[in-house]
Amino acid sequence: MMHSQTDPIQVLMVDDEQSIRRLAEKELAAGHRRIITAGTAQDALHAFKKEAFDVVILDMSLPDGNGLDLMAQFQEMRAEIQIIIITGYGDIDSAVQAMKMGAYDFITKPFSLDRLELVIEKAYQRVCLYRENRQLRQFQSAQPHRKLIGHSEGMATVRHLIDKVAPTHVPVLITGESGTGKNVVAQRIHSLSLRREQPLITKNCGTLQRELMRSELFGHRKGAFTGADAAHEGLLSIAHKGSLFLDEIGELSMEVQSALLRALETQTFRRVGDKDEKKVDIRFIFATNQNLKQAVESGRFSQALYYRLNVFTIHLPPLRERQEDIPAIVEYFLGRLSTTGTHFKISDRAMQCLLSYDWPGNVRELQNVMERAMILSDGDLITDKYLPKEMVDNTPSTSTNYPFLQLKTLEKAHIAKVLAYCHGSRSRAAEALGIGRKTLYRKLKEYDMDI
After folding, report:
1. Environment class of 16 (CB within 10 Å of its CB; exposed 0-12, middle 13-18, buried 19+)
2. What is the sign, positive or negative, of the torsion defined by CA atoms of 332, 334, 337, 343?
């Protein structure tokens, strides 16, 4: 497994012999490997609490502590850490005991630097495998990736802001009503960022138990509170090198807000029960459906945190303010939600009902309505009889007072607008519309548009 040149392996060497430490710093350090050394157990613990090490090279004989005890402390603080034991020929029993405790490997003095380098690289591969498995478990319950559909003025602004901020490291605050797609924007920011090969960790703060908020975000050490029977890595540790998306940020307690502000400003945090802080490298993305300014005024949200979050804001308009995007969103859901291979179509009257509705639940509600209609439909045509009764009853039977007088004309104009935006590229236009290329060609033919 080749290691990224921009993300060096973090190695801590703990040995009381200064000559060995100097040799390691001189010979083991490389462009893809960073070596920090410590001569005592106390210095090693201090360094370990400050830096996010991947591999530890640990001498069993230290002037102020037992190597096995120190190893247990390292493992308790960071479960994924891989430890390579250094021992003398006369102390093989300690090395065997360390292996039983979970050490990656051991080498005996005097040792070969080439051999040590090889063991470090292999140990790091195990670290990467551990992290990949952990991230996979983290993502198993995540929603599938969705697209930003629509080219209304509001969505064009959203896309422009995403393109500008994604390559930076600036924290982003996404605002908008529930169901407008704030999580989709967060995914898009991450996918266009320099961290796209690393995980995007997502958490809805509204689902956190108030008494466990700090532990969930920052982690805790074993015995930190009643019930803390084992050490726990918080979301900040898991998101190291990647992005952390915290939805419903306004639900956090004031105490946790204060700790989060420090993490934002210093890229350090402290686990519950720990005295020392740990460094992390995280891109923060936040979202809320609340008016945080009003929350600050009422004392429910930290003013300092609000100003820190409000550096770069992306506001998602509600669906009722971008009704011209509804046909494209509907087409996208008809294609994405179909599991039978059937290409669903929608009648003009059904589309008129969708365009007339106020959509208090926004895009999420539209998705639910389309999914229900597809289940109820006897064929491949979605008509108004498959829509919620209140939606149909509140739609005029004629389009006299409706701003979109001819739905086909509306869709044709929208397709033409998207094609122009994509400089005539059919494949890019189909992707932007959320439909397949065959569907786009069929519509171009249907509307007698130049293909």
Report:
1. middle
2. negative
